[in-house]
Amino acid sequence: MAEGMTDSLTDEGITEAAFKAACGRYATGVAVVTTLGADGHKEGLTVNSFTSVSLDPPLVLFCLDRKAGSFHGFTEAGRFAVNVLGEDQAELSTHFAMAGVPDKFAGVRHRVDPDGLPLLDDVLARIVCEIEHRYDGGDHVILVGRVARIDLGRADGRPLTYFRGAYGRFADGA
């Protein structure tokens, strides 16, 4: 076994804390996913569970906690937008991660597309998707979207990252 490594596998099973700690050691990007709920309410939440799935057809996914206040808004909607955050947008990420905020878009710079889908301003990229599939994922639902539109946003930005429960900066050797 490598120096500094410990074997924490046990016959008793995997604890929630150990699972979170192990997954937290995988650095991810950060995005805010937005939608217009079936009731006409704008919804948004911070995710680090976003990934591309396929190039042909172009598909992406994110995982939605069943306990999220915006759960029904997202699962009943037909579309969503992934707003990829830059390293200077940690405050925006924290804002959309907060539970119990009645209008997460109040005071947040954004626009709506012709169909009412909220899109955040000044992000690195926006990926607008039509919901293609909904899959059971335990305490989450996996929403797969077919990419309908892409806006590459700011060309000069660097990504906001998340590692071990904290925001970080992308290190590119510069």
Task: Provide a descriptive summary of the structure in words.
This protein has 174 residues and is mainly beta. Helices cover 13% and strands 41% of the residues. It contains three helices and twelve strands, in the order αβββββαβαββββββ. It has helices spanning 16-23, 71-76, 90-97, and strands spanning 28-29, 31-36, 42-47, 51-55, 58-65, 79-84, 110-112, 118-120, 125-137, 140-151, 160-163, 166-169. The radius of gyration is 17 Å and the shape is globular.
Write the layout of secondary structure elements.
Blueprint: H1 16-23, E1 28-29, E2 31-36, E3 42-47, E4 51-55, E5 58-65, H2 71-76, E6 79-84, H3 90-97, E7 110-112, E8 118-120, E9 125-137, E10 140-151, E11 160-163, E12 166-169
Antiparallel strand pairs: 1-11, 2-3, 2-6, 4-5, 5-10, 6-9, 7-8, 9-10, 11-12
Number of strands: 12
Largest sheet: 7 strands, antiparallel
Provide the structure class. Answer: mainly beta
Number of helices: 3
**pLDDT < 50 stretches:** none
What's the mean pLDDT score?
88
Distance between the termini: 33 Å
Which range best describes the helical content: under 10%, 10-25%, 25-40%, 40-55%, 55-70% or over 70%?
Answer: 10-25%
Task: Tell me the radius of gyration.
Answer: 17 Å
| Neighbour order of strands in the largest sheet | 3-2-6-9-10-5-4
Our estimate of the beta-strand percent is 35-45%
Order of helices and strands: HEEEEEHEHEEEEEE
General shape: globular
